[in-house]
Amino acid sequence: MGAGTEPDGSSRSDAEWERFLRESVAGAADAPKEPSARAREVSKRLRAEPGGGPEGWRAYAPARRKRRTGWYALGLLASLVLLVVALAPGRIGDLFADDDADSPLGAESARPTQAPPAGAAGRPTEEQPFHGSPAAKWADGAAGITVPKARAVGWMSAAEVERALTRSRDFLVDAGLDRGVLRGERPKDAIALISPHQEDVQALLKTAFRTPSEKNDPLLLFSRFRPSRTHLVGDVVKTRGRLTYREGRRGALQVTADVTFVYPVTPADAKGDDEIVRTIVRRELVLSWDNPDKVITEPGTFSIVSYKYDMTNGGCGAPTGYFTPPFGTDPDRRTDEASTEIDPYDRSTPVGQGKSSKDECRKATRS
User: Fold this and answer.
1) pLDDT tens by residue, the chain, 367 residues
2) How far is 363 from 316, CA to CA, in rounded Å?
3) Domain total for the chain?
4) HSE-CB for 292 with a 13 A CA cutoff
5) CB 135 within 8 A of CB 241
6) Is residue 192 included in any domain, yes or no?
């Protein structure tokens, strides 16, 4: 094939052939150029350095498998935490617990199996009167008294049982939470719920407020402080407890209340820097909503089957009809080793008979 001949045998023009020769000598505009000697020297030196220098354009580098040491370490740490939680769950709970955090306990639906753990150390203050106490996580006032779901019992329908349970809780609220009653006023609303035909209780009520005694003491049923001596701190009383019910005698609805009340108090003449004392009262009342066809009673009232309470930091002297919390150098602030010790926040044991007599004063293991 001649120099000026195409592959198909046709001849190439002289002008085309001359252009072909010029481009062959000059090189195409976009043809790759060979690097200079200096460029080759620089590339050689960079490749010899640690890391091999920068990767060339369009250079291929195979993907490297990354070592997942971070994930392995995190998994090991999580395994250790789970192991510690399994071996000592209580310690972990205490570590993150904050007795003043806004995380109240759920409602009490059954008797607990143990006393609550110790709260964070610290003195109560006017702003936080329950600081350092398990009561910091308890509900306020009536909200802390659990009322169960109603069902028909004895002579009462489910709706009537529900009304009786509500009124039973009303009695606890009127007797232990009403601000007027706490300041020493007569508990008229609470008394109105007690059957006027129950002679023994009516005898107690008739004399207890005038001449309180061991037998007839208003504190057996009501919480009261003398305003000239004691000042309630804040507007909140912490409570924890529940109502239960069953069928009683003669088909009556028998309601049992087991509730603990925590009252933060200071001396009435406190200067703002005085010690805050918590008077703690746990009450157990058994109430009978009797069938009016079988027992003489009044509609909307109950009979009191029994009452008992445990009280700490409420006074140890002769009955006065009021709780008398021990402040400062008060003579009632005793460390008599013969006194019965009681954890006032332990609701796992039955309620005892808390008496205010000198010989049977109870000493709180914590406040």
Assistant:
1) 444 455 555 555 666 656 766 665 555 445 555 556 655 665 666 566 555 544 444 443 444 555 555 566 666 776 765 665 555 544 444 444 444 445 778 999 999 999 998 766 778 999 999 999 999 999 999 999 999 999 999 999 999 999 999 999 999 999 999 999 999 999 999 999 999 999 999 999 999 999 999 999 999 999 999 999 999 999 999 999 999 999 999 999 999 999 999 999 999 988 766 789 999 999 999 999 999 999 999 999 999 999 999 999 998 888 999 999 998 766 555 444 456 788 999 999 999 754 433 445 778 888 8
2) 10
3) 1
4) 7
5) no
6) yes
Residue 350, in any domain of the structure: yes
Query: Is 163 within the bounds of a domain?
Result: yes
Domain membership of residue 79 (yes or no) is no
The domain in which residue 321 lies consists of 129-364
CB burial readout 272-298, b (16+ within 10 A) else e: eeeebbbbbbbbbbbbbbbbeeebebe
